Amino acid sequence: MTVTTPAGFRSAGITVGLKTSGKPDLALVVNDGPAPASAVVFTSNRAQANPILWSRKVAQNGAARAVILNSGGANCFTGDFGYETTRLTAEAVARELASEPQGPVPADVRDDRAERVLVCSTGLIGTGDQSFRDKIVNGVPGLVAALAADDTTAPGAILTTDSVEKTAVHEGDGWTIGAMAKGAGMLAPGLATMLVVITTDAKLDSAALDAALRRATGVSFDRLDSDGCMSTNDQVTLLASGASGVTPDENEFAAALAGVCDSLAAQLQADAEGASHDIDIEVRGAASVDDAVEVARSVARNNLFKAAIFGNDPNWGRVLAAIGTTDAAFDPYAVDVSFNGVRLCHAGAPDRPVEECDLTPRKTHVEIELFAGTFAATVRTNDLTHDYVHENSAYSS
Amino acid sequence: MTVTTPAGFRSAGITVGLKTSGKPDLALVVNDGPAPASAVVFTSNRAQANPILWSRKVAQNGAARAVILNSGGANCFTGDFGYETTRLTAEAVARELASEPQGPVPADVRDDRAERVLVCSTGLIGTGDQSFRDKIVNGVPGLVAALAADDTTAPGAILTTDSVEKTAVHEGDGWTIGAMAKGAGMLAPGLATMLVVITTDAKLDSAALDAALRRATGVSFDRLDSDGCMSTNDQVTLLASGASGVTPDENEFAAALAGVCDSLAAQLQADAEGASHDIDIEVRGAASVDDAVEVARSVARNNLFKAAIFGNDPNWGRVLAAIGTTDAAFDPYAVDVSFNGVRLCHAGAPDRPVEECDLTPRKTHVEIELFAGTFAATVRTNDLTHDYVHENSAYSS
């Protein structure tokens, strides 16, 4: 179980024919309370899909009742027709939930209006025609009928080019967190990322959830930069049911949530399209956390560096060429650069022989010591490989 | 002829053993006046090679007497030893020029001090040991002895992974411009680019040359962004001899210089490492030129877009996802996107069928109409290919 591990949630995943592969492509997570609350963060890309435009409004309406997610089409840049598809999807979910003969959700908090239903879509931009709409809207009754408190099918129904399901669970003291995620390409979040649904039975209000969620995503998904390409459909949804009756310490909950997000980010990195190395770029001795992130990201986005790692070449010169393009405070001729624990550059000159460095393991650690302060940050990225090019060119689609 | 097409210049290219291939690797261009003047622009990368650190000082000393260029090693991040190598190189050139029994340069303008000798290096970062120094310094006498006013060997001696020589000539009214360039990777200039030497026999002072050069590079090399990776060794040198005795109209000269730089930028694009498409990203209807360049560059640096072009896939969704990350003034749901003349996206929704678009030609044109103003700019880039990954991973080195 994943998003249904915490009490108070049901989920389902079914196949409605959006994917040519015939795999599951429509998922639903429902919050049955008794004390529903929610928080959502969205992509900071100005080009936003219709489900993002819709869900931004829903997020302002109070606790979300449910989130429906489809793969097999992003419904992005599909015009007014696409927005109407999203609205009709939410409406269908609301209608079906309202018609449930008797749900576990208490009558006094139950709000089955479409304005309480978040929508997420993922897939090809520009996809969202009449057939797409029909398959989703007509699939909703079956989806709601399949809802179960011990469901295991939802995580699979949100995948696109992902090769594995991504889930995480945290057991607190009397409360739990469950989560599922998808994402394998266009992985360079800004304030949010990919499609993620996190549930908890902790009893927390939406403001507390929001603070904890922004804190967690800021140091996890925001520091995952697989290919520098920010998506139009990123959304992270956090739903709390209050079913445990326990209100955890705020810091304890925030730390647990950050741990769950960090685990999902690592799973996303490990499944990035075509990658052969998971690279953690750790910047230390920075004058600020922002500087550390900027420096690390400049390396994470440098194609020459990424291609060198693919070739198991510890090319520290490309690291220095990359960080030299930033505005961060440091002296480029004073930094140290280490690959997998071997210091290859010291004080602006070659140090240990590159032959001492073994880059054959998939897990790769690059450490950059700036000698400019006491702050640090790590950005996760991947190498640039033949398979990445192949999977993202038309040859694979 | 190229840099020696204008009167008042000699050049040479020889082999001193820096390249394992045994190809020519050391070049020299000498300005014999009679009215020498010069202007230089440098990489804006804060990580700068020793020859850049040296040449920045030379550029402040008045008209440069000569520029010596080596391939086979960048002499970047090689510490104080590397800087001393650069100084010794300039000193050797100065000494040999001073000892020429009788040169064509008039005695009253002849300045053979090392402080008048620009140095450029290109190759692997971190390369610049004792052997590197010895080969260059010991090679200078033979290089100076090989100087000729009808030389054709210099352009070949500055190449690294380039497959062809890059040269350009402009014939003015009584004056000429000649130029040579190298560059095939790490092509994302900021204020300058690659190694370029441009000569002219026009009679212009250094201030006029500087103004014309910055104007020309700003709309040519600065808008070439093959792989988003800025080099540590970029330098564009413009030398004027005054040998024609003609002082051209300032605007006419600036336009001619811009044409030469534009031709070289196109040649660099066409020879970019592993590329199979030369992509011109034209942004129109922008609120400012800066906006147009920012929008175009966001597409030029988007790996998913670049991989799609490699696969002949007119993936306009990735264009919109890329431009949505910029701060430029426009409505993402109002733009038009065309590939090779076929409008695939109109007003935030799909327009013509992608099947109408043929991306098999190497030359690719992407037009983005922002409907936000009257300004336009074009950024040149390349696709992301298997060969790019191969050439830049250790497998090829």
Automatic annotation (TrEMBL), chains A, B:
Catalysed transformations (reactions): N(2)-acetyl-L-ornithine + L-glutamate = N-acetyl-L-glutamate + L-ornithine; L-glutamate + acetyl-CoA = N-acetyl-L-glutamate + CoA + H(+)
Domain of life per record: Bacteria
Presence of the UniProt keyword Acyltransferase in the record: yes
GO biological process: L-arginine biosynthetic process; ornithine biosynthetic process
Active site: T193 (nucleophile)
Pfam families found in the cross-reference section: ArgJ (PF01960)
InterPro entries in alphabetical order: Arg_biosynth_ArgJ, ArgJ-like_dom_sf, ArgJ_beta_C
Residues at which substrate binds: T160, K182, T193, E273, N392, S397
Quaternary assembly: Heterotetramer of two alpha and two beta chains.
Family, similarity comment: Belongs to the ArgJ family.
Record's protein name: Arginine biosynthesis bifunctional protein ArgJ
